[in-house]
Amino acid sequence: MTASDDRRFMAAALRLARWNTGRTSTNPSVACLIVRDGLIVGSGITAPGGRPHAEPQALAGAGDAARGATAHVTLEPCSHFGKTPPCVNALIAAGIARVVIAVTDPDERVSGRGIAMLREAGIAVDTGLLENEGRAVLAGYLTRQVQKRPQVILKLAVSADGMIGRRDHGQVAITGPIARAQVHALRAEVDAILIGIGTARADDPELTCRLPGLHEASPRRFVLDRRLEISLGSKLVRSAREVAVTVVGDDAGRRAALEAAGVEVWGVEGISPHVPVAKNPLHLLLHRMATSGISSLMVEGGAGIAAAFLEAGVVDRIVLLEGPDKIGGDGVASPVTRGHMPSGFRLERAETFGPDRAYHYERESGCLPG
Protein backbone atom coordinates (compact mmCIF):
# COMPACT_ATOMS: atom_id res chain seq x y z
CA MET A 1 0.00 0.00 0.00
CA THR A 2 1.42 3.40 -0.97
CA ALA A 3 1.71 6.45 1.26
CA SER A 4 -1.01 8.19 -0.76
CA ASP A 5 -3.29 5.19 -0.23
CA ASP A 6 -2.71 5.40 3.52
CA ARG A 7 -3.57 9.10 3.52
CA ARG A 8 -6.70 8.48 1.49
CA PHE A 9 -7.99 5.77 3.80
CA MET A 10 -7.10 7.68 6.96
CA ALA A 11 -8.91 10.74 5.62
CA ALA A 12 -11.94 8.54 5.02
CA ALA A 13 -11.69 7.18 8.57
CA LEU A 14 -11.56 10.69 10.00
CA ARG A 15 -14.67 11.67 8.04
CA LEU A 16 -16.41 8.60 9.39
CA ALA A 17 -15.34 9.41 12.97
CA ARG A 18 -17.17 12.75 12.79
CA TRP A 19 -20.46 10.93 12.26
CA ASN A 20 -20.98 10.17 15.96
CA THR A 21 -19.24 13.22 17.44
CA GLY A 22 -21.06 14.22 20.61
CA ARG A 23 -22.95 10.93 20.90
CA THR A 24 -20.32 8.56 22.36
CA SER A 25 -19.59 10.01 25.81
CA THR A 26 -17.59 9.19 27.78
CA ASN A 27 -15.58 7.58 24.96
CA PRO A 28 -14.37 9.50 21.90
CA SER A 29 -15.88 8.91 18.48
CA VAL A 30 -13.24 6.75 16.78
CA ALA A 31 -13.33 5.14 13.33
CA CYS A 32 -11.55 2.09 11.97
CA LEU A 33 -11.26 0.92 8.37
CA ILE A 34 -9.96 -2.55 7.47
CA VAL A 35 -8.27 -2.38 4.07
CA ARG A 36 -7.09 -5.30 1.96
CA ASP A 37 -5.73 -5.15 -1.60
CA GLY A 38 -6.78 -1.51 -1.86
CA LEU A 39 -10.40 -2.16 -0.85
CA ILE A 40 -12.25 -1.40 2.38
CA VAL A 41 -13.47 -4.79 3.62
CA GLY A 42 -14.71 -3.64 7.04
CA SER A 43 -15.56 -0.38 8.79
CA GLY A 44 -16.59 0.63 12.26
CA ILE A 45 -17.28 3.70 14.36
CA THR A 46 -17.74 4.03 18.11
CA ALA A 47 -21.41 3.39 18.75
CA PRO A 48 -23.69 5.94 20.45
CA GLY A 49 -23.13 5.64 24.18
CA GLY A 50 -19.50 4.64 23.63
CA ARG A 51 -19.78 0.90 22.98
CA PRO A 52 -19.02 -1.19 21.05
CA HIS A 53 -15.75 0.37 19.94
CA ALA A 54 -14.84 0.91 16.30
CA GLU A 55 -12.24 -1.87 15.90
CA PRO A 56 -14.38 -4.91 16.81
CA GLN A 57 -17.18 -3.64 14.58
CA ALA A 58 -14.79 -3.20 11.65
CA LEU A 59 -13.25 -6.64 12.24
CA ALA A 60 -16.70 -8.25 12.39
CA GLY A 61 -17.54 -6.68 9.04
CA ALA A 62 -14.29 -7.85 7.50
CA GLY A 63 -14.50 -11.43 8.77
CA ASP A 64 -11.76 -13.68 7.39
CA ALA A 65 -10.62 -10.88 5.07
CA ALA A 66 -9.07 -9.16 8.10
CA ARG A 67 -6.19 -11.65 8.17
CA GLY A 68 -3.19 -9.97 6.57
CA ALA A 69 -5.05 -6.68 6.11
CA THR A 70 -4.27 -3.14 7.28
CA ALA A 71 -6.34 -1.33 9.92
CA HIS A 72 -6.56 2.47 9.69
CA VAL A 73 -7.59 3.77 13.12
CA THR A 74 -8.09 7.41 14.08
CA LEU A 75 -6.99 6.87 17.72
CA GLU A 76 -4.54 4.38 19.24
CA PRO A 77 -6.48 1.16 20.00
CA CYS A 78 -7.26 0.64 23.67
CA SER A 79 -5.09 -1.84 25.56
CA HIS A 80 -6.86 -2.09 28.92
CA PHE A 81 -9.82 -4.07 30.15
CA GLY A 82 -12.79 -1.83 30.84
CA LYS A 83 -16.42 -2.65 30.15
CA THR A 84 -15.18 -4.31 26.94
CA PRO A 85 -12.00 -6.29 26.16
CA PRO A 86 -9.01 -4.40 24.69
CA CYS A 87 -9.29 -3.57 21.00
CA VAL A 88 -5.57 -4.37 20.64
CA ASN A 89 -6.33 -7.99 21.50
CA ALA A 90 -9.08 -8.13 18.89
CA LEU A 91 -6.74 -6.79 16.18
CA ILE A 92 -4.06 -9.33 17.10
CA ALA A 93 -6.51 -12.24 17.21
CA ALA A 94 -7.94 -11.30 13.81
CA GLY A 95 -4.52 -11.57 12.17
CA ILE A 96 -4.19 -7.91 11.18
CA ALA A 97 -0.77 -7.41 9.56
CA ARG A 98 -0.44 -3.62 9.91
CA VAL A 99 -2.06 -0.81 11.86
CA VAL A 100 -1.96 2.87 10.85
CA ILE A 101 -2.82 5.34 13.62
CA ALA A 102 -3.57 9.06 13.41
CA VAL A 103 -3.33 10.06 17.09
CA THR A 104 -1.67 8.42 20.08
CA ASP A 105 -4.05 8.15 23.04
CA PRO A 106 -3.02 10.40 25.98
CA ASP A 107 -5.00 8.23 28.41
CA GLU A 108 -2.35 6.91 30.79
CA ARG A 109 -3.94 3.46 30.64
CA VAL A 110 -3.29 3.33 26.90
CA SER A 111 -0.68 5.89 25.81
CA GLY A 112 1.90 3.98 23.79
CA ARG A 113 0.97 0.68 25.40
CA GLY A 114 -1.40 -0.31 22.62
CA ILE A 115 1.27 0.41 20.02
CA ALA A 116 3.84 -1.62 21.97
CA MET A 117 1.49 -4.60 22.29
CA LEU A 118 0.80 -4.58 18.55
CA ARG A 119 4.50 -4.48 17.70
CA GLU A 120 5.28 -7.24 20.20
CA ALA A 121 2.74 -9.39 18.35
CA GLY A 122 4.65 -8.81 15.09
CA ILE A 123 2.23 -6.25 13.66
CA ALA A 124 3.71 -3.29 11.78
CA VAL A 125 2.55 0.01 13.23
CA ASP A 126 2.73 3.49 11.70
CA THR A 127 1.66 6.49 13.78
CA GLY A 128 1.01 10.18 13.26
CA LEU A 129 -0.67 9.98 9.84
CA LEU A 130 -2.89 13.07 9.41
CA GLU A 131 -2.28 13.74 13.10
CA ASN A 132 -3.35 17.40 13.02
CA GLU A 133 -6.61 16.48 11.29
CA GLY A 134 -7.08 13.68 13.80
CA ARG A 135 -6.54 16.02 16.72
CA ALA A 136 -9.22 18.32 15.33
CA VAL A 137 -11.70 15.44 15.17
CA LEU A 138 -10.78 14.28 18.69
CA ALA A 139 -10.39 17.76 20.18
CA GLY A 140 -12.98 17.30 22.92
CA TYR A 141 -11.60 13.98 24.12
CA LEU A 142 -7.98 15.18 23.98
CA THR A 143 -8.79 18.35 25.93
CA ARG A 144 -10.55 16.36 28.65
CA GLN A 145 -7.68 13.87 28.92
CA VAL A 146 -4.83 16.40 28.91
CA GLN A 147 -6.32 19.52 30.54
CA LYS A 148 -8.94 17.81 32.70
CA ARG A 149 -11.71 20.00 31.33
CA PRO A 150 -14.03 19.93 28.31
CA GLN A 151 -13.21 21.62 25.04
CA VAL A 152 -15.06 24.97 25.24
CA ILE A 153 -16.77 26.39 22.15
CA LEU A 154 -18.08 29.93 22.49
CA LYS A 155 -20.97 30.60 20.10
CA LEU A 156 -22.20 34.15 19.55
CA ALA A 157 -24.73 35.61 17.12
CA VAL A 158 -23.66 39.17 16.32
CA SER A 159 -25.43 41.90 14.37
CA ALA A 160 -23.73 43.94 11.66
CA ASP A 161 -22.96 46.64 14.24
CA GLY A 162 -21.47 44.20 16.76
CA MET A 163 -24.45 43.65 19.08
CA ILE A 164 -25.74 40.36 20.53
CA GLY A 165 -29.12 41.64 21.67
CA ARG A 166 -31.19 44.62 22.71
CA ARG A 167 -31.36 45.98 26.27
CA ASP A 168 -34.48 45.10 28.23
CA HIS A 169 -35.75 42.83 25.47
CA GLY A 170 -36.11 39.09 25.25
CA GLN A 171 -34.63 37.01 22.49
CA VAL A 172 -33.71 39.01 19.37
CA ALA A 173 -33.45 37.21 16.03
CA ILE A 174 -30.06 38.21 14.61
CA THR A 175 -29.64 35.44 12.04
CA GLY A 176 -32.05 33.64 9.75
CA PRO A 177 -33.43 30.09 9.78
CA ILE A 178 -30.54 28.52 7.82
CA ALA A 179 -27.91 29.80 10.25
CA ARG A 180 -30.06 28.83 13.23
CA ALA A 181 -30.33 25.31 11.84
CA GLN A 182 -26.52 25.18 11.79
CA VAL A 183 -26.51 26.06 15.49
CA HIS A 184 -28.78 23.10 16.18
CA ALA A 185 -26.38 20.90 14.22
CA LEU A 186 -23.55 22.18 16.43
CA ARG A 187 -25.59 21.34 19.52
CA ALA A 188 -25.88 17.75 18.30
CA GLU A 189 -22.09 17.51 18.17
CA VAL A 190 -21.35 18.60 21.76
CA ASP A 191 -21.86 16.87 25.09
CA ALA A 192 -23.19 19.92 26.92
CA ILE A 193 -24.44 23.47 26.45
CA LEU A 194 -24.31 26.33 28.98
CA ILE A 195 -26.06 29.65 29.57
CA GLY A 196 -26.42 32.04 32.52
CA ILE A 197 -29.54 32.79 34.49
CA GLY A 198 -29.90 36.13 32.69
CA THR A 199 -30.34 34.39 29.35
CA ALA A 200 -32.61 31.79 30.93
CA ARG A 201 -34.92 34.48 32.29
CA ALA A 202 -34.86 36.76 29.24
CA ASP A 203 -35.20 34.15 26.49
CA ASP A 204 -36.72 31.08 28.21
CA PRO A 205 -34.75 28.84 25.81
CA GLU A 206 -35.07 25.10 25.44
CA LEU A 207 -31.47 24.50 24.25
CA THR A 208 -32.32 21.23 22.53
CA CYS A 209 -31.49 20.09 19.02
CA ARG A 210 -34.67 20.58 17.04
CA LEU A 211 -33.49 19.33 13.66
CA PRO A 212 -35.62 16.40 12.39
CA GLY A 213 -34.21 13.12 13.65
CA LEU A 214 -31.62 14.69 15.98
CA HIS A 215 -33.62 15.48 19.11
CA GLU A 216 -32.06 12.49 20.88
CA ALA A 217 -28.65 14.07 20.24
CA SER A 218 -29.59 17.13 22.33
CA PRO A 219 -26.77 18.03 24.75
CA ARG A 220 -26.90 18.11 28.52
CA ARG A 221 -28.00 21.61 29.53
CA PHE A 222 -26.29 23.76 32.19
CA VAL A 223 -27.43 27.04 33.74
CA LEU A 224 -25.15 29.20 35.90
CA ASP A 225 -27.61 30.38 38.53
CA ARG A 226 -25.89 31.23 41.82
CA ARG A 227 -29.14 31.78 43.76
CA LEU A 228 -31.18 29.11 41.93
CA GLU A 229 -33.60 31.69 40.56
CA ILE A 230 -34.65 29.72 37.49
CA SER A 231 -38.42 29.43 37.18
CA LEU A 232 -40.04 26.05 37.77
CA GLY A 233 -42.25 26.88 34.79
CA SER A 234 -39.36 27.52 32.41
CA LYS A 235 -38.92 25.34 29.35
CA LEU A 236 -35.65 24.04 30.74
CA VAL A 237 -37.14 22.85 34.01
CA ARG A 238 -40.32 21.49 32.43
CA SER A 239 -38.25 19.37 30.02
CA ALA A 240 -35.63 18.25 32.56
CA ARG A 241 -36.87 14.67 32.68
CA GLU A 242 -36.59 14.44 28.90
CA VAL A 243 -33.18 16.10 28.40
CA ALA A 244 -30.85 16.49 31.39
CA VAL A 245 -30.60 19.91 33.05
CA THR A 246 -28.00 20.89 35.65
CA VAL A 247 -28.29 24.18 37.50
CA VAL A 248 -25.09 25.44 39.12
CA GLY A 249 -25.77 27.36 42.32
CA ASP A 250 -26.78 27.00 45.92
CA ASP A 251 -29.96 27.91 47.77
CA ALA A 252 -31.32 25.37 50.22
CA GLY A 253 -34.85 26.71 49.92
CA ARG A 254 -34.98 26.26 46.14
CA ARG A 255 -32.86 23.16 45.70
CA ALA A 256 -35.48 20.63 46.78
CA ALA A 257 -38.12 22.00 44.39
CA LEU A 258 -35.75 21.90 41.43
CA GLU A 259 -34.61 18.38 42.23
CA ALA A 260 -38.23 17.28 42.56
CA ALA A 261 -38.76 18.57 39.00
CA GLY A 262 -35.89 16.41 37.74
CA VAL A 263 -33.18 19.09 37.71
CA GLU A 264 -29.72 18.22 38.99
CA VAL A 265 -28.16 20.91 41.19
CA TRP A 266 -24.42 21.41 41.50
CA GLY A 267 -23.43 23.54 44.46
CA VAL A 268 -20.30 25.15 43.03
CA GLU A 269 -19.87 28.21 45.24
CA GLY A 270 -19.21 31.69 43.99
CA ILE A 271 -19.96 31.22 40.29
CA SER A 272 -19.82 34.78 38.99
CA PRO A 273 -18.32 36.53 35.99
CA HIS A 274 -17.08 39.28 38.29
CA VAL A 275 -14.49 37.45 40.42
CA PRO A 276 -10.76 37.79 39.62
CA VAL A 277 -9.47 35.41 36.97
CA ALA A 278 -7.01 33.79 39.38
CA LYS A 279 -9.91 32.82 41.62
CA ASN A 280 -12.45 32.14 38.90
CA PRO A 281 -14.48 29.07 39.89
CA LEU A 282 -15.17 28.31 36.23
CA HIS A 283 -12.02 26.18 36.35
CA LEU A 284 -13.55 24.13 39.17
CA LEU A 285 -16.82 23.81 37.27
CA LEU A 286 -15.10 22.67 34.07
CA HIS A 287 -13.04 20.13 36.01
CA ARG A 288 -16.22 18.74 37.52
CA MET A 289 -17.77 18.52 34.07
CA ALA A 290 -14.74 16.58 32.83
CA THR A 291 -14.93 14.11 35.69
CA SER A 292 -18.59 13.63 34.77
CA GLY A 293 -17.51 12.55 31.27
CA ILE A 294 -18.25 15.80 29.43
CA SER A 295 -15.68 16.32 26.68
CA SER A 296 -17.17 19.30 24.84
CA LEU A 297 -19.16 22.30 26.02
CA MET A 298 -20.84 24.99 23.92
CA VAL A 299 -21.31 28.31 25.72
CA GLU A 300 -24.38 30.17 24.43
CA GLY A 301 -24.82 32.68 27.22
CA GLY A 302 -24.95 36.46 27.07
CA ALA A 303 -22.15 39.01 27.13
CA GLY A 304 -21.26 38.49 30.80
CA ILE A 305 -20.96 34.72 30.53
CA ALA A 306 -18.98 34.98 27.28
CA ALA A 307 -16.58 37.50 28.84
CA ALA A 308 -16.13 35.31 31.93
CA PHE A 309 -15.07 32.30 29.89
CA LEU A 310 -12.74 34.41 27.76
CA GLU A 311 -11.15 36.03 30.82
CA ALA A 312 -10.67 32.61 32.42
CA GLY A 313 -8.65 31.55 29.36
CA VAL A 314 -10.67 28.39 28.74
CA VAL A 315 -12.20 29.08 25.30
CA ASP A 316 -10.81 26.82 22.58
CA ARG A 317 -13.07 27.73 19.64
CA ILE A 318 -15.20 30.74 18.80
CA VAL A 319 -18.10 30.43 16.38
CA LEU A 320 -19.26 33.87 15.31
CA LEU A 321 -22.57 34.03 13.44
CA GLU A 322 -22.97 37.44 11.82
CA GLY A 323 -26.31 38.76 10.63
CA PRO A 324 -26.74 41.50 8.00
CA ASP A 325 -28.86 43.91 10.06
CA LYS A 326 -27.94 46.48 12.70
CA ILE A 327 -29.51 46.73 16.15
CA GLY A 328 -28.56 50.30 17.00
CA GLY A 329 -27.88 52.35 20.10
CA ASP A 330 -29.92 50.25 22.52
CA GLY A 331 -27.96 47.12 21.64
CA VAL A 332 -25.86 44.96 23.95
CA ALA A 333 -22.27 44.96 22.68
CA SER A 334 -20.66 41.62 21.95
CA PRO A 335 -17.38 40.92 23.78
CA VAL A 336 -16.12 39.42 20.50
CA THR A 337 -16.45 40.60 16.91
CA ARG A 338 -14.45 39.98 13.75
CA GLY A 339 -12.68 43.27 14.33
CA HIS A 340 -12.15 42.59 18.03
CA MET A 341 -10.94 39.01 18.37
CA PRO A 342 -8.91 37.91 21.43
CA SER A 343 -5.22 37.35 20.76
CA GLY A 344 -4.20 33.78 20.08
CA PHE A 345 -7.15 32.92 17.83
CA ARG A 346 -6.95 32.42 14.08
CA LEU A 347 -9.71 32.25 11.50
CA GLU A 348 -10.09 28.60 10.51
CA ARG A 349 -12.94 28.92 8.01
CA ALA A 350 -15.88 31.07 6.95
CA GLU A 351 -19.27 29.94 5.68
CA THR A 352 -22.32 31.57 4.12
CA PHE A 353 -25.86 30.65 5.17
CA GLY A 354 -28.26 32.74 3.10
CA PRO A 355 -27.78 36.37 4.19
CA ASP A 356 -25.71 35.34 7.21
CA ARG A 357 -22.03 34.46 7.63
CA ALA A 358 -20.35 32.10 10.09
CA TYR A 359 -16.73 32.54 11.15
CA HIS A 360 -14.91 29.74 12.94
CA TYR A 361 -11.88 30.71 15.01
CA GLU A 362 -9.45 28.23 16.63
CA ARG A 363 -6.98 28.86 19.40
CA GLU A 364 -3.54 28.71 17.84
CA SER A 365 -1.09 25.97 18.80
CA GLY A 366 1.04 27.05 21.70
CA CYS A 367 -1.66 29.43 22.95
CA LEU A 368 -3.67 26.76 24.73
CA PRO A 369 -3.75 27.29 28.48
CA GLY A 370 -2.25 24.53 30.59
Question: What would you say about this model in short?
Answer:
This protein is an alpha/beta fold and 370 residues long. The chain is built from twelve helices and 16 strands. The strands form three sheets. The protein has a nine-stranded mixed sheet with strand order 11-10-9-8-12-6-13-16-15, with helices on both faces.
List keywords for this structure.
370 residues, nine-stranded mixed β-sheet, five-stranded mixed β-sheet
Largest sheet: 9 strands, mixed
Structural class: alpha/beta
How would you state the average pLDDT, rounded?
92
Uncertain runs are none
Q: Rg from C-alpha positions?
A: 22 Å
Structure description:
By secondary structure, the chain is α/β, with parallel strands linked by helices. 29% of the residues lie in helices and 24% in strands. The chain contains twelve helices and 16 strands. Strands 11-10-9-8-12-6-13-16-15 form a nine-stranded mixed sheet, with helices on both faces. The chain has a five-stranded mixed sheet with strand order 2-1-3-4-5, with helices on both faces. It has a two-stranded antiparallel ribbon with strand order 7-14. The longest helix has 15 residues. The two termini are 39 Å apart.
